[in-house]
Specification:
- The complex is a heterodimer of chains A (88) and B (356).
- With 88 residues, chain A is of the alpha+beta class.
- Chain A has one domain.
- Helices cover 30% and strands 31% of the residues of chain A.
- Chain A is built from two helices and four strands, in the order E-E-H-E-E-H.
- Chain A has a four-stranded antiparallel β-sheet with strand order 2-1-3-4, covered by helices on one side.
- In chain A, helix 1 packs across helix 2.
- The longest helix of chain A has 13 residues.
- The two termini of chain A are 15 Å apart.
- Chain B is α/β, with parallel strands linked by helices.
- Chain B contains ten helices and nine strands.
- In chain B, helix 9 packs antiparallel against helix 10.
- In chain B, the strands form three sheets. Chain B has a five-stranded mixed β-sheet with strand order 2-1-3-5-4, covered by helices on one side. In chain B, strands 6-7 form a two-stranded antiparallel sheet.
- The radius of gyration of chain B is 21 Å and the shape is globular.
- The chains are: A alpha+beta (88), B alpha/beta (356).
- At the A-B interface, helix 2 of A face strand 4, helix 4, helix 5 and helix 6 of B.
- Chain B: One of its GO terms (molecular function) is metal ion binding.
- Chain B: Belongs to the peptidase M4 family.
- Chain B: This is Neutral metalloproteinase.
- Chain B: Its cofactor is Zn(2+).
- Chain B: It comes from Streptomyces aurantiogriseus.
Amino acid sequence: MRIQVRRTGGFAGIERHAEVDTSGRPDAQEWHALAEKAVAAGRGVPPIGVPDGFSYQITVDGRTVYAADPRLTEEQQKLISRVLKEGA
Amino acid sequence: MTTHGGFEPVFCTVVPPHVLDRLARNDDPALSGPAQRTLVRDSELRSRRRVTTEFRLWAGPTAKAPSEQPLRTIYDAEHRTDLPGTKVRGEGEDPGQDATVNRAYSGLGATFDLFLKAYGRHSIDGDGLPLDATVHFDEGYNNAFWNGEQMVFGDGDGEIFVDFTNSIDVIGHELAHGVTQYTANLTYYGQPGALNESMSDVFGSLIKQYSLGQTAAEADWLIGAGLLAPSVTGQALRSMKAPGTAYDDDVLGKDPQPATMDDYVRTGRDNGGVHINSGIPNHAFHLAATAIGGFAWEKAGQIWYDVLTGGELSEKALFTDFAKLTVRAARERFGDGGEELQAVEKAWEQVGVRIL
């Protein structure tokens, strides 16, 4: 499974992008469960964000959903921070 | 962790009715639920108000002038994302051990001061609204934002950004989003969104200049100076004086802001480039303020404030709509043919925004 996160906006307006390929990873199952829940709670179109809030684009195996601070689900928050931290 | 259950926005009179209507129809119950309840409560309040007005009934305590003092409360999210968090300092309480809390508290005070003393505005709603801020939001959070009700500040990750309360103009910037929300309510997308961002940079910078007693010539015109970690090559996040030059770093990339319409960036990202194209109206303000000279909040700031709060600026305003209104405001406030009018006209011409 290929999980991509793109973060835009924020006070600085600086974009960040990272992705994780779970194939061959020992914790792949954990990633899959997290990604499925995060995508299920995502929106088809970018939600109206708050001023200076981050906007997120989450793409899992080609399917893209949107989310924005400060209204992320726990799974979205966890997935986004893990991908931006551990991804390349 | 923020979940739909953990953060349920309470849309008081903060959110305009048309937005509430739209939210109330949203498929996300976390958004539609509170919006529906607010609409019901608002209609109850409106009927009560009508009844008390029409029948001259006693409607509770007599309205009195809002206070000349801010009503500040600082909360600590303790590195979680539940808002507002634990109350750590209320109005009039002595400073504590946490420098972040103290900076947020005094930044809110400085912002309140500028709006009251320069423009006669009582807090962000003009009616003494309490000022709430949450610090230590999330872990290593590289951002600060306004959520429609309060300011939220992250600590930064220490690698790219440090504590977001470090820059007083960042605190002013977030509060100014509140002022915009209560006045012109510029839509946070595309050109009106870039104007919304620019309003926050303009008043954020003016708050810094006012608190340091600097003239337009003395000011650094930087947004977020002191926010970048030592390893980052750059002086700030944005420069109103020279948009596009604030930073140029291996990790961060280069400051993408244009200074004129020739370099206007068309993009769907960042809500249609709100933090990018704000460089153009930012630069126009800097040019006008430095041409006029003296303290920028007195004349250029007054003109911009007149437009923001005057009721003529539409929620969907484009740069040219805003520019035309500043020309009119300069004429109305400082006279036809005055140096203020000339400075404002020339500033827009220099950044390539049409005023005719």
